[in-house]
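Hi Y.,

Following your request, here is the sequence exactly as I used it, all 335 residues.
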Amino acid sequence: MTTILGVAVGVLPVFLFLEALVLIDSYKLVALRAILLSVAAGVVAGVASYGVNLVLRPALELDFTHYSRYVAPVVEETLKATFVVFLLRRNKVGFVVDAAIHGFGIGTGFALLENLYYLSVNPDATLWTWIVRGLGTAIMHGGTTAIVAMVSRALTRSDPFRLHLVLPGLAVAVVLHSLYNHFLVQPLLATALIVLVLPYVIVAVFQRSERDTTAWLGAGFDTDQELLRAVHAGQVSGTPVGTYLTTVRRRFAPEVIVDMMCLLRLRAELAIHAKGILLMREAGFEAAPDPTLKDTFEELRYLERSIGKTGRLALHPFLHTSTRDLWQLNMLNER
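Below is the corresponding structure, written out as tokens. Let me know if you'd prefer a different format.
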């Protein structure tokens, strides 16, 4: 019974904190299946870390203390950050809010595997040990990866993700992980610091990002609606889009110009649809699946092929290709 209670204490806190992040996300940016995938990615990172550490420590001829302080944090945080990079490259993360949830989910999976391994090698560990592992080590793993994801997403801003943007957050995560391992001689102090500092920092950044998300939704919604109204009313000529198209008209056939206008219309409609879903979620409602979305995306891909790479480059100033705009298209496409 003591072992069961200990394992529960070692595992539940990190899952409860992950659940808390999901609950305070008023826009429900991350679906359950995506959260579970991040947790699974954390488990995979844990397996990979075990293998690397098993080979690397003897190769470096370091004792356990020095290896755990200076090498293991680099290995483990880098492998956990791998899935963060994948999510950012594929435009699966739109805001700091969902970056935090994905990052903490990865750390949760890593901590789950690590604690299960610890149970296999230390089945008689005391309840105090499991408290340290549950409130300290597990929260540390979730918090450091959440920091990597949040910092990387904040640095990306509206530009495409670049690999070097993950380095500042990764450096912070490695330092925090190393500092935590330095306090292993005083595990209760290390646990107290983690419990008092990391959750507060994550929640504070989380709430700030929620306000930024609200501001982005308001500004983007108005811009998309203005463009869509102009297209439907046939009054594009008086807009910046119309003026720009007039200057490039001689470079494209008339039918390509028409397809460009249709592409702009579809992108504006999809952007409004995505923002409408987020606003409904913020109000406590879940939008019903739209059966027409599949056909809309097929038409979108047809238009992109029709105007070609040159046409897409010509429309680049108006296609809204920031990471957030691409994220909202991915969100709709996966519904």
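The chain has a mean pLDDT of 85.

Thanks again,
Q.
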